[in-house]
Amino acid sequence: MREKILRLLKENSNDFLSGEKISENFDVSRAAIWKHINTLKEEGYEIESVPRKGYRLISSPDILTYGEVENYLDTKFIGREIHYFNTIDSTNIKAKEIAQEETEGTVIISEEQTLGKGRLGRSWASPSGKGIWMSIILKPHIDPMKVAKITQVGAAAVSLALEDLNIKSYIKWPNDIVMNGKKVCGILTEMSCELNMINYVIMGVGINVNLNKEDFKGEIEKIGTSIKVETGKEVNRKKLLGFFLNRFEKLYTTFVNEDNFKDTLGICRDKSILIGREVKIIRGKDEQKGKVIDISDEGELLVDYGDNKIEKIMSGEVSV
Ligand code: BTN
Question: Where does biotin bind (predicted)?
Fold first, then answer.
């Protein structure tokens, strides 16, 4: 009901809407409307209430609820259900808890994570209101061996969404988005499957949107940054989230339904920061130098170690 009232207020933001009209519209009491309006105010909506005139929406808060993101969405199923939290341990943990009962495309999003998880057991700093910390529940009917490619689909979608906002970024294979050599986004994909059947895939995406320089203290200062720090401008998180979900749904459905990974690959190659560069391949304590030749049709990194031996790398850490 609250979402419906909000939608009505947004559609009529130039006028006052009387409590009577809203209650007629939804067939609920004026007292109930008043309660919902108060909850909206608590959430940060600025709503003018004038006796005998009614309510008027003045401004909306910078929050990533469905009500705030839907205007930017043109998806069929990705992000059409958003579970929104103010704070949570980790959206990936929550997504795994509810994945079985939820439909494909459901998004878990939180303003803050207290136990954000990164790859390789690392933690992921997720301060309140400054980033996009989210997980998407996916149920693809594909070979579990192909799930790693979904991470690349996600990376391609983030980079395209940034491009939609005129922001240039690069993809550091397989799943980091970088600006000026530093990481602005990471993806952690987790899966539950039995034999050859996938129960669900959780794609967790962390985008450092409006974090400040001070948010990157210590070791992380050398490797991490935010879009705001790199562009010098505050970025509209709702728009970026909507654009990302739109881009993701297109690439994901082509990949899953048409078995077409070429579209994603084209973007990953085009925006690759590694192709043509000398890199270090890190496996535990072992480091090996090589030159990245390309990304294969299967999404592996092709590395030349100088002795005409080209290795296909499926996963791992690469540093430039
Ligand atoms: C990486 O190490 O690059 C992956 C980082 C993934 C972070 C995101 S934030 C939302 C989701 N929830 C988590 O706990 N982690 C992912």
Answer: 90-92, 113, 183
Is the predicted pLDDT of residue 300 greater than 90, yes or no?
Answer: yes
Q: Which residues line ligand 1 (CB under 6 A)?
A: 90-92, 113, 116-119, 122, 124, 126, 133-135, 176, 186-188, 204-206
Average pLDDT across the chain, whole number? 95
> What's the pLDDT band for 306 if we cut at 50, 70, 90?
confident
Between the CA of 187 and the centroid of ligand 1 the distance, in Å, is: 6
- For residue 281, the CA-to-ligand 1 centroid distance in Å is 22
Buried b (16+ CB within 10 A) or exposed e, 209-227: bbbeeebbeeeeeeebbbb
Kindly state the average pLDDT of the residues 3-10: 92
59 is in an annotated binding site: no
Whether residue 91 is annotated as binding a ligand: the answer is: yes
Spatial CA neighbour of 26 closest among 52, 7, 50 = 7
Residue 239 near residue 232, CB atoms below 8 Å = no
- All structural domains of the chain with their residue ranges: 2-59, 66-270, 278-319
What ipTM describes this predicted complex?
0.99
Domain 2-59: give its CATH code.
1.10.10.10
